[in-house]
């Protein structure tokens, strides 16, 4: 699972770290400056809890699948020549 922190939206409440300190770290002033990062499968629920606690919605969960559970790539479908 990947998480992205929008540093421009973070206003330094620090709730992400307060509720999910195993995943999120904030600066001395409470700002989350982590950017985009991978979260271990064991911490998925914790990461979601911290993201949902953000009153500014500055934390987005990008991929909520366990590692290795992504769909196999598919070949592109041929375009129809009938129009």
Automatic annotation (TrEMBL):
InterPro entries: Fe-S_cluster_ET. Residues 62-83 are annotated as: Disordered. Gene3D superfamilies: 3.30.70.20. Keywords: 3Fe-4S, Electron transport, Iron, Iron-sulfur, Metal-binding, Transport. Residues 67-83 have a biased composition (Basic and acidic residues). Its cofactor is [3Fe-4S] cluster. One of its GO terms (molecular function) is 3 iron, 4 sulfur cluster binding. Transmembrane segments: none annotated. This is Ferredoxin.
């Amino acid at each position: 699972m990947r998480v992205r922190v929008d540093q421009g939206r973070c206003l330094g409440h620090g709730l992400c770290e307060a509720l999910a300190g195993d995943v999120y770290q904030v600066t001395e002033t409470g700002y989350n400056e982590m950017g985009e990062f991978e979260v271990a499968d064991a911490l998925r629920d914790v990461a979601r809890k911290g993201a949902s606690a953000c009153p500014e919605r500055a934390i987005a969960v990008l991929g909520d699948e366990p590692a290795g559970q992504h769909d196999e790539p598919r070949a592109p479908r041929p375009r129809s020549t009938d129009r």
